[in-house]
Amino acid sequence: MEYTPSAARYERMRYRRCGKSSLSLPAISLGLWQNFGSVDDYGSCAERIKRAFDLGVTHFDLANNYGPEPGSAEINFGRVLREYLRGYRDELIISSKAGHEIWPGPYGGNSSRKNLMASVDQSLRRTGLEYFDIFYSHRYDGVTPVEETMQALVDIVRQGKALYVGISKYPPREAALAYRLLSEAGVPCLVSQYRYSLFERGVEDETIGLAARSGSGLIAFSPLAQGMLTDKYLDGIPEGSRAARPTGFLQRAQVTAEKVEVARRLNSVALRRGQTLAQMSLAWLLKDERVTSVLIGASSVAQLEENLRALDSPAFSDEELKEIDSLLAPLRPAP
Questions:
Q1: Is there a domain that residue 306 lies in?
Q2: pTM
Q3: 207-241 per-position pLDDT tens digit
């Protein structure tokens, strides 16, 4: 069926410049880490991607290991692009990454030149794209010299396989070196991607400031702490939820009584603001202008639409920010 996007798709979304570049990203981007793989219903995947674009989401975030099965999120996105969005390619920012294991053997899961160069070619084939807008080193693997990984990213740009490059989850020391190497090569780091939420604030110590000083934008992934910053876990772990499954990224042990209690109290603040806990959690991240975008997932169109309404949030008062900070105090790591 022919798809025509909403003519008003850019009216409600807010866009932020990415670091020192002139490229803008939507304040909320769609990540395909989960719910878009081969185990998921393709029709539902397509509807969520189309609806996101209708609402002004122009940035879609992939990685070569996203699925499950690994690689299948790229395949599904490529199919949506061919069937519905091909005529709108120049309106989209499509990113992918490499660095986690995706094929067997010693070369299929590290940050080596071998892995990155092979991975970008595989990802382009899976998506059917001629180039990625952004290609990331998905992690510092603790072994590969940063110089080797960054040179691979530079060469990927020079070969026309990506327009920009980024890093994800790099420790501050390695990130600082990556920023310097990329800048000296004339391919500056456009964006840095880190886990960041009300429940995980470690990037505030050094990472956000380092990225900003280095001219890099910052994207927060897992902004809802794998669902713990929604109303899903306010009464514990419901049957059928992500944490109730024997495998996955959110384990039962992570949904502690302490976090549940903090989430309940945060939910009370959100309700006073006329928001859901998820909406307030996203708005709280976006209060910092150094955060270019937050990456949300979506298991349904309704969930997508609800979370995008975080963009309509009222500004936080000083009293609200102090209250939120005090509620989070029990979760701070011991000095």
A1: yes
A2: 0.94
A3: 999 999 999 999 999 999 988 999 987 876 655 55
